[in-house]
Structures are given as C-alpha cells and as structure tokens.
Design goal:
The chain is an alpha+beta fold. It has one domain. It contains two helices and five strands. Strands 2-3-4 form a three-stranded antiparallel sheet, covered by helices on one side. The longest helix is centred in the C-terminal third of the chain and has 11 residues. The chain is globular.
Length: about 80
C-alpha cells in the first residue's frame, strides 16, 4: 500500500493487529490517546495523541510516521 494519508477509522483498524488501543476517557478536546500496551494487556506503554474530528478525519503521513516510530512498528506499510 502506498505511504500517504489514512482516515482515522482505517488507521485504527490497521493498528489493531499490533495491539494498539484507544484509551477511553483520555485526551483533551478533540484528541484521542493511543496506547501500545507493554506487556500485552497492561495499562502502560508508549502513548501517542492523535486528532479526532470524527472517524473520517484524514491523518497525515508525518503524523503516522511519528506514531509508528513511537510504537516501534516497522512493517505497517507492507
């Protein structure tokens, strides 16, 4: 798949296999906080805030790249 923007819905669906979850009740205003639990099932691990103006929100490539670096995900675009 070419690297580029993704809709928030698609991004969240593609991050599920890596164990990334949305922390309910966290984030300020129009932000969601994403968490990659370490170890799986824990409530701690790397977190990343992402804008949320609805599930159709376009997430830019630099934001996705930063998120993947934070979560140490290397094969996302394969």
């Amino acid at each position: 798949m070419p690297k580029g923007t993704l809709k928030l819905r698609e991004l969240l669906n593609r991050l599920k296999p890596y164990g990334v979850v949305v922390i309910p009740g966290r984030g300020r205003g129009s932000e969601l906080i994403l968490l990659r639990p370490v170890p799986p099932g824990a409530k701690t691990g790397p977190q990343y805030p992402i804008k949320n103006h609805g599930m159709g929100t376009e997430i830019a490539k630099p934001v996705i790249s930063a998120l993947l670096r934070r979560f140490k995900i290397t094969n996302f675009w394969d």
